[in-house]
Amino acid sequence: MRITHLLLGILVTVIWGSNFSVIEVGLRDLDPFLLTGLRFTFTALPLVFFLRRPRDVPIGVLAAYGILFGVGLWWVVNLAMAKGLSPGLSSLVLQFSAFFTVVLSAIFLKERIGVAQYVGMLLAGSGLALVIGFTRGATTSLGIALVLFAAFSWSTCNLIVKRHKPADMLAFVVWSSVFSAPALFLLTWVQHGTAPFLGLLDGITLRAGGSVLFQAYVTTVFGYKVWNDLMKTYPAAQVAPLSLIVPASGIATSYLVFDERFGMAVWAGIIAMLAGVAVFVLGAHIRRREQVAA
To answer: Are 78 and 70 in contact (CB under 8 A)?
Structure first.
């Protein structure tokens, strides 16, 4: 991977880690359904009026990506956090998308998985089991299950990008959000009726507005434009493991902003999960060097 692309990938993953604390700030004033809907409304607006719809991607695929990304990924993450899962743990568990992405790419795109990558996945899975076993509260277990589902949704989104390789990634992210926002507002209405919409003006505080705009323009428009460009350019085994940085950034930000702390057993699980992703990265790097040498 080119050094400029690598540095951009690192910057994005640092931003994504801090984004979980930004979400937590927004959830203090806004309904999780509505917060997610507003995020994707501003991701689409006003850029949708200045960017042409991607013609190299079927509109059905664009819609499927938008709904998976908006509902399957971020609505589910916001719901998990509203149910009590902390920003740090949310950022950590979501990184299982790295493993799901590589497995799905192996199944559908015939990309190979090395022995070290299997070892990394096993180690990370053991760490997740420790976190679940030693974290108190049924709401946390439910939250982890929800975020694992969100991780799988993100992996499916990655697969769509790798399969269709949109030429204009910014337009792809913006136009897919046109399909995300209505689905999210519909879910809000089905779940809570008109109350969240009627209370919107009271809920939009300065911190809630800042949370929405950061999620829309920094995390989504900039972050996923860069990430999806990397996903369509490089093999999944090179890109997906960069997400190792997300939980480090997420846990550090959550500690600084919310004083989030973990017990020793949970820390053991966190370290095992991070080590698993590190083995995953190292294994992919070694295998690529061996292939080049051969």
So the answer is: no
pLDDT at 283: 67
Query: What is the structure's pLDDT at 281?
Result: 65
Residues of the chain with pLDDT below 50 are 138
Q: What is the pLDDT of residue 137?
A: 57
How would DSSP label each residue in the chain? --HHHHHHHHHHHHHHHHHHHHHHHHHTTS-HHHHHHHHHHHHHTTGGGTSPPPSSS-HHHHHHHHHIIIIIIIIHHHHHHHTT--HHHHHHHGGGHHHHHHHHHHHHS-----HHHHHHHHHHHHHHHHHHHHS--HHHHHHHHHHHHHHHHHHHHHHHHHHH--S-HHHHHHHHHHHHHHHHHHHHHHHHTTHHHHTHHHH--HHHHHHHHIIIIIIIIIHHHHHHHHHHHS-HHHHGGGGGHHHHHHHHHHHHHH-----HHHHHHHHHHHHHHHHHHHHHHHHHHHHHH-
- Cα–Cα distance measured from residue 220 to residue 155, given in angstroms and rounded to the nearest whole number: 16
